[in-house]
Specification:
The protein has helices at about 1-25, 45-55, 70-75, 85-95, 140-155, 160-170, 195-205, 235-245, 255-260, 265-270, 285-295, 305-310, 320-330, 335-340, 345-360, 365-375, 385-395, and strands at about 25-35, 60-65, 80-85, 95-100, 120, 155-160, 180, 210-215, 245-250, 275-280, 295-300, 315. The chain is an alpha/beta fold. It has 2 domains: about 1-190 and about 380-395, CDP-glycerol glycerophosphotransferase, N-terminal domain (Rossmann fold); about 195-375, CDP-glycerol glycerophosphotransferase, C-terminal domain (Rossmann fold, 3-Layer(aba) Sandwich), CATH 3.40.50. It has a 7-stranded parallel sheet with strand order 3-2-1-4-5-6-7, sandwiched between helices. Strands 10-9-8-11-12 form a 5-stranded parallel sheet, with helices on both faces. Helix 8 links the parallel strand 8 (about 210-215) and strand 9 (about 245-250). Helix 1 crosses helix 4 (about 85-95) and helix 2 (about 45-55) crosses helix 17 (about 385-395). The chain starts with a helix and ends with a helix. About 35% of the residues are buried.
């Protein structure tokens, strides 16, 4: 009963806000930002926010969040930040001319706008490999409605290229005419010549290893991710191999898996292994920083694969549940033909794949580069600049 009353009150309040947003005059240069449902300062919006803060003093970027930790982060870089549900945050949400999000409208706003007031640029959080909610059988109604809300509220969605936009438009069919091929701001770091990789390695205790391999899988709706999904899995022999090669595996679990109790025994088993390190989002908020200091990537169906293409480094795929994933969720491109890297099915072949990394071998480089050139129009680190130009054109219109 209490839950039902709360829902009625919140829905009534949200309706009131969306009506007010139609009639309250807009402050043209006020741009609101948010990410990950108001929980983080990260991804494309965070990179773009910092770029505008440092280069365009005529604009007024403000970050909205639900998190005290995010408030501290934004204040440290000299940015303006408010709680999304505070009176100030709500007032700004009614006054802004434009808002920027990574996942949902409610990254920033407490209401779903009518008639695209305020305007919206959806930066998204990656080129999709797996299908979106509209294409998944028996998808939750709430997720389907959220997708339609984004379609109806978005003026533009950014993409790295027309080919990438085709995939993104399947996930969120707003129409290709609403895409702007700017590139993804979060990938600008790959072209930053001043980025200090050695300093970051030292910060995370990785400077003593000859090779660093990042392991970043996605999540599964039906249960916890198996990090080493082999029938012949043996931690002792894996540990011995890593020691012999002086290699470190950096585990970067999806936040859904970190909260999954069924993985507790696994985390306990690896926490004392010197050559396996757990670096979560709380430790390093920008996963591309970990991409920069790694020599190879292990993943499964994560869109991180597309970001990693830019760096021209080996990728290993652990797709132990491919048939289930393909049946229950599915992929937009043909997954097996677009993922260029070893796909080991047992620990012995997994270690052979890691040995190639250790020896500097990369038999899939040419195929990955061909794919990279299809997905990226700009390989120059200028995505934030191009998105800002789009913003300027919208606020001056």
């Amino acid at each position: 009963m209490i839950f039902w009353i709360r829902e009625v009150v919140m829905n009534t309040f949200a309706f009131f806000l969306k009506v007010l947003a139609l009639i309250i005059p807009k402050q043209k240069k006020l741009i609101l930002f948010g990410a990950h449902n108001g929980t983080r300062f990260s991804d494309n919006p965070a990179v773009l926010f910092k770029y505008i803060l440092n280069t365009h003093k005529e604009l007024q970027p403000v970050w909205l969040t639900n998190s005290d930790q995010v408030i501290d982060q934004v204040k440290k870089i000299g940015g303006k930040v408010y709680k999304r549900r505070s009176s100030k945050g709500i007032w700004l949400s009614l006054r802004t001319s434009l808002y920027i999000s990574s996942h949902n409208i409610k990254d920033v706003l407490m209401y779903i706008p009518l008639q695209k007031k305020p305007k919206h640029i959806y930066l998204h959080h990656g080129i999709p490999l797996r299908k979106g909610w509209l294409n998944i059988k028996d998808a939750p109604k709430k997720s389907i409605q959220s997708t339609y809300n984004k379609i109806n509220a978005s003026n533009y969605m950014i993409a790295p290229s027309a080919f990438a936009a085709e995939q993104q438009n399947k996930l969120l069919p707003i129409g290709v005419e609403h895409f702007v091929f700017t590139g993804l701001p979060r990938n600008d770091v790959f072209f930053d010549k001043n980025f200090d990789k050695d300093d970051l390695k030292t910060q995370f205790g990785l400077s003593g290893f000859d090779k660093v391999v990042l392991y970043g899988p996605t999540w599964r709706p039906w249960g916890a991710t198996q990090f080493f999904p082999f029938e012949d899995y043996d931690l002792a022999s894996l540990k011995r191999f890593l020691e012999e090669q002086n290699m470190c595996l950096v585990l970067r679990p999806h936040h859904v898996d970190l909260n999954n109790d069924t993985n507790a025994d696994f985390w306990k088993s690896v926490e004392t292994v010197k050559h396996i390190k757990l670096i979560t989002h709380d430790i390093c908020s920008d996963v591309n920083h970990l991409c920069m200091i790694s020599d190879a990537l292990i993943t499964d169906y994560s869109s991180m694969y597309y970001d990693y293409l830019i760096q021209d480094k080996p990728v290993i795929f652990l797709v132990y549940d491919f048939e289930k994933y393909n049946t229950e969720i599915g992929f937009y491109p043909d997954f097996l033909n677009i993922t260029h890297g070893h796909k080991p099915k047992d620990q012995a072949s997994f270690l052979t794949s890691l040995l190639e990394v250790s020896e500097g071998k990369d038999s899939y480089r040419d195929k990955r580069n061909q794919l990279k050139n299809k997905f990226y129009d700009h390989l120059d680190g200028g995505a934030s600049k191009r998105v800002t130009e789009l913003i300027l054109s919208m606020v001056h219109h």
